[in-house]
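Human: For the file, kindly provide a plain-text protein record giving the amino acid sequence and the backbone structure tokens, at your earliest convenience.
Assistant:
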Amino acid sequence: MVQERAFPAFQTVPAQVTREEGLMLYEDMVLGRFFEDKCAEMYYRGKMFGFVHLYNGQEAVSTGVIRAMRPGEDYVCSTYRDHVHALSCGVPAREVMAELFGKATGCSKGRGGSMHLFSAEHRLLGGFAFIGEGIPVATGAAFQSKYRREVMGDESADQVTACFFGDGTTNNGQFFECLNMAALWKLPIIFVVENNKWAIGMAHDRASSQTEIYKKASVFGMPGYEVDGMDVLAVRGVAQEAVKRARAGEGPTLIECLTYRFRGHSLADPDELRSKEEKEAWLARDPLKKFSSYLIEQNLVKQSELKDIEKKVQALVEDAVKFGLESPEPDPSELYKYIFAED
């Protein structure tokens, strides 16, 4: 029997934040939560189609890592659960929502949908539907940064790449091959495992011979950290250190964020495999509630200010829905556009 480790004793040092940083982090997490709740509403109303995988519960990971990077400069590679990663990268909510409706104004011009968000402007390398598919892409992005800087002499090429994937992916070949290459070449990349305990319907403890994923980093001689993925400051603290190492040319880092998705694998999943007790235990550790309590207890903000942020975000999400619904469908005459490179 595998030893359960739902809530281990974490050793990482949480980041210290100013009032402005705290408000920024809270707004980013609220945007992720409210956006995903609205996606569920639209899906069940028959306005959104295909597979839609929501991020509720994991917001501290996206915000903690991506907002510790340089927006619009550093690279982010996502998975099929990519809406919130895109928002944290700065992709406008309007463009993300329009893409989910399959509209021409979407960030992928209506070609990608929920699982394939992309934005060159915001350095979002894409959402990838196949397990582990994004890891080689992210490794390539990190390699080009290093090559441009060290071989071509481009001093401005100090970008860091963050690669997100789930616990199930760490049992696949791309994970091991790319970590090996990244360590050999000291690539500026952060491998972020969002361990939400379930790979669709397979419990993590039943799928991996080494359930403590961060320990796999030692095989490749790179640092590996386990962090409370429900605590945005804990994630941010580890991410800041990993970004610093990568930008200084010290190579990759593996971060395992222990987190939990509050909804089923997708909106088509009845979520009958996880126990009520397990779900309730993790719901009690809601990252938004935890962080809002911290900000108030530290006298960094007032409750009314957090409410104002929530009202602002709710209006932003409603505007995104209106924009998406009113946007045009892709023109049939452009069926073959974006398939091949164009001059």
Notes: Residues 52-285 form a domain with the Rossmann fold fold (CATH 3.40.50.970). The chain has a mean pLDDT of 95. The beta strands are 75-77, 161-166, 189-195, 198-199, 202-203, 224-228, 253-258.
